[in-house]
Amino acid sequence: MSTGRRRVVVTGIGVVAPGSMGREGFWDMITAGRTATRRITFFDPARFRSQVAAEVDFDGRRLGLTAQEVFRTDRFVQMAMVAADEAVADSGLAFGADGGPDPDRVGVTLGSAVGATMRLEQEYVSVSDTGRLWEVDPRYASRFLASALVPSCGATELAVRFGAHGPATVVSTGCTSGIDAVGYGAQLVEDGDADVVIAGASDAPISPISMACFDTIRATTDSNDDPEHASKPFDARRNGFVMGEGAAVLVLEELGRARARGAEVYCEVTGYANRCNAFHMTGLKPDGTEMAEAITVALGQGRTDPDEVGYVNAHGSGTKQNDRHETAAVKKSLGPAAGRVAMSSIKSMVGHSLGAIGAIEVAATALAVQRGVLPPTANYEVPDPECDLDYVPRTAREQKVDVAISVGSGFGGFQSAIVLAAPTRRES
Amino acid sequence: MTGLLVTGIGVVAPTGVGVEEHWASLVRGEPAIRPVEGFDSGRYGVPLAGQVRDFVPADHVSPQLMVQTDRWTWMSLAAATLAAEDAGYTAPEDVYATSVFLASGSGGNEFSQHEIQGLWAKGPRSVGAYQSIAWFYAASTGQVSIRDGFKGPSGVVVSEGAGGLDSIGWARRVARRGTPAVLVGGTEAGLCPYAVLCQATGGRLSSAQRPEDAYLPFDRRADGHVVGEGGAILLLEEPGAAAARGATKVWGEVAGYAATHDAHHHEDPAPDAVQYARAIRLSLADAGVSPDEVDLVMADGAGVPELDRLELEALGAVFGGRTTPVPVTAPSSFTGRLMAGGSALDVATALLAMRDGIVPGTAFLTDPVEAPAGVDLVTAGRVRDLSTVVVLARGAGGFNSSLVLRRPAGGPTS
């Protein structure tokens, strides 16, 4: 990257995660090593292979949404709105007020893998009379199905909420959507198309169709008798991911602007890259080559040496092949430094919320950089010879980190990496 | 800096499968909007649509892939192949040198309706192994990348009807960061019962029984649009890379792009066209083009009176000072609105128009609304030399995107 590049910092964070309330509740939970995985309560999971999930006890009304907002939107939009409200309040930016950012220079990038799937399924049950009618009955449809069909409704709701007239979009690259939405948001600022971007991701996939489709390919865990310990990334006993839900939103801001207003800066986004493995929609080769390439390119953008990386926030979904793939990718990209790096998966605690988790993990990584505490990999007990890095087992670790990376891997072959650096990092 | 070059186009549209088939149909002025085949869409108040009738998936997609994917992905796979063939593009040695950056609106509708139907009628075990990879919005991008071995930075944007243009906007960011070739655009296939019902609930669809009464952008009789399926995929290449591989065809140059959002209301457009006009102005400035230099505008053409009025207001604000009005046409009137696929198809149509110096008309536009100063609504097709064309698209909820295309120096090569 040229030296004239506009630099991007994180000045606000909002989180809606299972087992907690808000950003600080989330941070307390993951640094305590507590798990939010439980037997599914949203519907009776008895007929499903995987019966556990990390659910959010979410009440949009209690969290400030209006009755109409709750009525017209899917859960994924509601969680995005709540996370965005927290992030914007945290940033101290006065949107729409004197001294606030120029609305024309504020963008929105929202990631989501499956959009309004929960609402689309719920309404389908009515209009099809529980799957009886192929030619569905229009008299049972709500008038907000048109926006539910197309997930860009989520970006619209956020743009309207904050009066953001800059570029807005939903980014939907499956399970890397969250990292990609934050990464693309950062590119909007770098390229001068926005000064502030409300960037994040949200997904609410704990519904019968989503659970069923992962059941059939055995991607999710069947550790139904012990929900609290069902998500076991990097552990030799791991047997699939635990479905989750949630949202995280970050306020991205051009560095000079943030400094000028004296904003508190969590970290700088110094690099972002994604690559495809062009191999298989769900399968991963054990070598991790394309994820390694994404990490290497992202580090290069910020002129970061692998030795500087103190923490890797892992995708760590807890499937057999992912954790092996990812371990190989980190070794390949960081070289000898991989032997010293701390790496953990918060999916052990909050599950895998598909497109949302990437943004939740970027939020966790930003907090780790700011606070010098690394969240652990819960439930890690039995080492796997193929996964032989330092996974920060069970207990959080106090450790100052100058540079951290968060990585993601998703159906479709997408591999993404984002690099966050402490604002105090000294550039060599 | 010279913009990315369009070196290949693949079209799967109601007007035809293949770029020349589509264009011939437009030049002949043959609308492709007809009564829906396959189910009774009339019960959703939507008797007409732009269906792709001469698309034989097996001609383009392997049997294994066909069972794993939705019709929307079949169309993307076909259009991607057609674009690569048109460009004479084969996967280069550097596996990371090609990106796939498609727009999607509604994902794998028909496939998913079958699976949800089975789930609720018979139980979880009736859901097949491919639902997890067929329905989600990234399915087409992932499948194209896997089939063709493209490992570059890839992504999926969703901004309803503006998505096709926005995929080009993102492709430029990818190219700036070093990836020389990007497949862009997208397709859409939302013509199964549930997807049609969903779209109908938005209240913007025409219920007319006859094509000549249905989707009438800029006509006084306009009362909504007709939905369609299909779209286009285009190959964009960095000029140096295109020259280095000996690319023989250049359709045009992506000279400018910008996007804004109304940020006014979750459904209704802003009562003024300020943000829409701003998107157009920003894209012109990005291209270094003055409003006087624009030879043609391909409008969004919503076919809803209020939205048409706002589009004309935006165009008047940008082009009102011209001494000769700019021709404005809406060829989507021939196909229906294809959501993310529609703006991609409009880009293809604009490049064809530039190549042949032919402005396609607006179907069934017989009683045009009053156009503001600086705007000339095109009814029938006409001949005109075209060097700079602006393509506009809006997405429901307030997305405004504008793309500036320029004819390459010396005209399109082929």
Characterize the main sheet of chain A. Answer: 10 strands, mixed
Q: Could you name the CATH class of the largest domain in chain B?
A: Alpha Beta
Largest sheet of chain B: 12 strands, mixed
Contiguous uncertain segments of 5+ residues of chain A: none
What distance lies between the first and last C-alpha atoms of chain A, to the nearest angstrom?
15 Å
Explain this structure to me?
The complex is a heterodimer of chains A (428) and B (414). Chain A is of the alpha/beta class and 428 residues long. Chain A has two domains: 253 residues, Peroxisomal Thiolase, Chain A, domain 1 (3-Layer(aba) Sandwich); 152 residues, 3-Layer(aba) Sandwich (Peroxisomal Thiolase, Chain A, domain 1), CATH 3.40.47.10. Helix content of chain A is 32%, strand content 19%. Chain A has 13 helices and 15 strands. In chain A, strands 5-4-6-8-1-9-15-14-10-11 form a ten-stranded mixed beta sheet, with helices on both faces. A three-stranded mixed beta sheet of chain A has the order 2-3-7. In chain A, a hairpin with a 3-residue loop joins strand 14 and strand 15. The longest helix of chain A has 17 residues. Chain A is globular. In chain A, 66% of the residues are buried. The model of chain A has no long low-confidence stretch (mean pLDDT 97). Chain B has 414 residues and is α/β, with parallel strands linked by helices. Chain B folds into two domains: 240 residues, Peroxisomal Thiolase, Chain A, domain 1 (3-Layer(aba) Sandwich), CATH 3.40.47; 151 residues, 3-Layer(aba) Sandwich (Peroxisomal Thiolase, Chain A, domain 1), CATH 3.40.47.10. Chain B is built from twelve helices and 16 strands. In chain B, strands 1, 2, 5, 6, 7, 8, 9, 10, 11, 13, 15 and 16 form a twelve-stranded mixed beta sheet that branches. A two-stranded antiparallel sheet of chain B has the order 3-4. In chain B, strands 12-14 form a two-stranded antiparallel ribbon. In chain B, a hairpin with a 2-residue loop joins strand 1 and strand 2. Chain B is globular, with a radius of gyration of 20 Å. The model of chain B has no long low-confidence stretch (mean pLDDT 97). The interface between A and B is large, with 88 and 92 residues. Chain B: Belongs to the thiolase-like superfamily. Beta-ketoacyl-ACP synthases family. Chain B: This is Minimal PKS chain-length factor (CLF/KS beta). Chain B: It comes from Geodermatophilus nigrescens. Chain B: Keywords: Acyltransferase, Transferase. Chain B: InterPro entries: Beta-ketoacyl_synthase, Ketoacyl_synth_C, Ketoacyl_synth_N, PKS_Beta-ketoAc_synthase_dom, Thiolase-like.
